[in-house]
Design goal:
There is one protein chain. It contains six helices and no strands. The protein has 118 residues and is mostly helical. The protein has two domains: 68 residues, no CATH class; 50 residues. Helix 1 runs antiparallel to helix 2, helix 2 packs antiparallel against helix 3 and helix 5 packs antiparallel against helix 6. The longest helix is centred in the last third of the chain and has 21 residues. The protein is globular. This is DUF454 domain-containing protein. Keywords: Membrane, Transmembrane, Transmembrane helix.
Length: 118
C-alpha cells in the first residue's frame, strides 16, 4: 500500500515538473510525462490512461514505450531548449557554475540524439 502511494507521489511530482517545463526551457516536458506515466502504471491506472490518451503527450509516451523512439521534432525542441538554458546559465551564473547547464546539455542531448527517430 505504501509503495503504491510512493509511486503516485512520484507520478504527480513528475507531472508537475513536466507541466512547469512547458514554460521553462531547462525542464523537459515529455520526459517528465513519460516518467509520470511509468509511475502511474504502478499506482493509478486511471491517471496512466489519461496521460496515454492526452492529445499532446500521449503519442510520445506510446512511441517511447513501444519502440524507444524520440521524434525528430522532439530532438530539435530539446536542443533548442538546452541552448536557451546554456545561454541563460552563461549570462546569469559565475564560473564554474555556468558550466553546469552546458554539461547537462551535452550528456542529455548525446543520449537523446542516439535514440532512433519516430
Amino acid at each position: 500500500m505504501i509503495q503504491r502511494q510512493l509511486w503516485l507521489i512520484g507520478g504527480l511530482s513528475a507531472l508537475v515538473l513536466g507541466t512547469v517545463g512547458i514554460a521553462l526551457p531547462l525542464l523537459p516536458t515529455v520526459p517528465f510525462m513519460i516518467l509520470a506515466a511509468f509511475c502511474f502504471a504502478r499506482s493509478s491506472p486511471a491517471l496512466e490512461a489519461r496521460l496515454m490518451n492526452h492529445p499532446a503527450f500521449g503519442h510520445h509516451i506510446v512511441a517511447w514505450r513501444e519502440k524507444g523512439v524520440v521524434s525528430r521534432r522532439g530532438k530539435w525542441s530539446a536542443t533548442v531548449a538546452f541552448g536557451i538554458s546554456i545561454a541563460i546559465g552563461m549570462i546569469t551564473l559565475a564560473l564554474p557554475w555556468s558550466l553546469i547547464p552546458l554539461g547537462v546539455a551535452i550528456l542529455c542531448l548525446g543520449w537523446i540524439w542516439r535514440k532512433p527517430d519516430a
